Amino acid sequence: MADSWATRRGDPGQRTDSSGQRTDGRGGLGTDLHLDLPPGGGSGVRVALIRALRDAARSGRLAPGTRLPSSRSLATDLGIARNTVADAYGELVAEGWLTARQGSGTRVAERVVPPEPAPPRTPPAAAAAATRPTYDLRPGEPDVSAFPRTAWLSAARRALIAAPNDAFGYGHPAGRPELRRVLADYLARARGVRAAPERIVVCAGFVQGLALLSKVREKAGYREVAVESYGLDAHWNVMRGAGLRTVPLPVDQQGARTAELDRSAGLRNVLLTPAHQFPIGVPLDPDRRAAVVDWASRVGGLVLEDDYDGEFRYDRQPVGALQGLDPEHVVYLGTASKSLAPALRLAWMVVPDHLMDDLLALKRTGEWESGRLDQLTLAEFIDSGAYDRHVRGMRMRYRRRRDQLVAALAERAPRVRVTGIAAGLHAVLQLPPGTEQSVVRGAAWQGLALDGLSGYRYRDEQGQQQQQEPGGHPDALVFAYGTAPDHAFAGALEALCRVLP
Questions:
Q1: Is 108 helix (H, G, I), strand (E, B) or coil?
Q2: What residues pair up with 54 in beta bridges, in sequence order?
Q3: Which of 24, 98, 144, 354 is deepest in the core (most CB within 10 A)?
């Protein structure tokens, strides 16, 4: 029960004046504040007194203009130190809740009190929980439950102990030299990338790297970029936001039709996913790889190589990075988002010499930096061999899931053909004509979030989707078998089989 200032200790001198207001024996105002304070003293009482007075003024229980007891009177009545009350009054005056004038005492400030906002009809957390799918199998994330927490923590501890003092400063815009050195060795060994550490730039995710490159190219006057006719609109919008105009490049079962780059005379940029086209799932044909490198060299163009899941290959030898064919005309972009977790916000670019100065000058102008300590941790994680061990383990795990998917569909949905499964973390499930949208809706009823392939078809700046090309890609689902944790995958697969034709 709340103790008022007048009753907390009792006041034998208390009485009322002719108007009925209470006064104390010393002639002070006896307004009953009904303050709820904890027993004892110290900073806890001061904080509680401030909160109680503020709440009383905010709610209107203490009306604007109400005169408060003197600090001496209130301290005596509450049995606390006068300085505690004086400090509380002073803080509330500074905040604007009270006013204090010589000869007028301390009063509640004259102010308009806004009404309390009405509570939402459905709490946000409850609304989000009500709409959250049971199984979210849209591409974009790996199995984040498998993040190697213990090994990462050990690497972080070692990296922190060994970190030089300058690692705690602002540092170089290209990133920590330790990570750039380790990445140069790893990318040469695992992806066939030709790079010295001095040509690597660490960035806070692939999208940030793409935005930087787009701004640099726009500033240089190269304002058109070809993009694959199936891909992520988020990437197209990043480049458009930097001032580039996107031009769709058709994709078939051999990847992007790179020979068509010559059709646009002013085109000098192209964004590709050559090792594993997203989302179709095919590697770029060797002849087309050679054609795009020839085009870039001939016209002075630039290829932006998105190697988003280069570590995950199952049934064939890894397709080496396109960058290895022509390091001066291909920018290699890699990321830890698929191999480890998106939360790290760590990605890297291997950049031609002629772009480095402009790129670093731009990177210095804004909030373009990744956490230095996370960079040191990743460097230690790779250098110790823990990264290779983690990738090998995840490759086996994802391959088992892929095989489970193929076996389940062969038994339960033989009309559905699975493609794009030699690599990566997703598969394309080809459906009978005209069934894509109904299957996506049926999956939602089963608590399964799935994307149809048509949702990845190119959209222009006005959001208009490109028409399907004659003989183009069939109705299909993009099924991210790498996203769900192990314990949920069987349930997700069962829900999928229930909705397939």
A1: strand
A2: none
A3: 98
